[in-house]
Amino acid sequence: MAVLRWGEVRRQAADPGLALTFFGAVGILVLFVLYPAFRVLLYPSLRDYLAIPQSLRWMQAARNSLVMMLISTCSATFVGLLFAFATTRPDIPGRRFFRNIAMLPLFAPPFMVAFAYILMFGRLGLITHTLLGMTANIFGWHGLWMVQTVAFFPLAMLIISGVLEAANPSLEHAARNLGADEWSVLRTITLALARPGIAGAALVVAISVLADFGNAVVIAGGFPLLATEAWFRMEGMGDLKGAALVVAMLLIPTVALFLLERYWVSRRVYTTVTGRGSRIERPPTPPLLKGAVVTLCSLVSVLILLVYFGVVAGAFTSVWGRDWSLTLSHWHLARDRIWSLWSSVKIGAIAGAMTGVVGVVVAFLTSRSLPLRNFLDFLAVLPGALPGVFVGVGFVLAFNATPLGGTLWILATALAFWHLPMGYQAAAARLKQIERSIEEAAVNLGASGLRVLWDVYLPLLFRALVEAFAVSFIRAVTNVSIVVFLISPGQVVATFVILNMIQNNIWGAAGALTTMLLLLTFASIGLTWLVLGRVVRTSAVAG
Amino acid sequence: MMRRMWIGWLVLALLVGVVPPVIAQQQKIVVYSALPDLETSLIHREFTRRTGIPVEALSVAAAGTLQARIRAEKDRPRADIFVGGSRDFHIPLAKEGLLVKYRSPVAAEAKISPAYLDPDGYWHGWYLGALSIIINSERWDRELAPRGVRKPATWDDLIRPEFKGHFVMPSPVTTGGGYIFVAVQIFRLGEDRAWAYLKALNANASQYTPTAPGTITLLERGEAIVAMMWAHEAIGARILRAAPLEVIVPPDTGFEIGAVSIIKGGPNPAGARAYVDFLMTRTPQDINARYGFRYPVRADVGVPAGATPFEQLKFVKYDLEWAIQNQTRIRERWTREIGR
Question: pTM of the predicted model, to two decimals?
Answer without folding.
Answer: 0.83
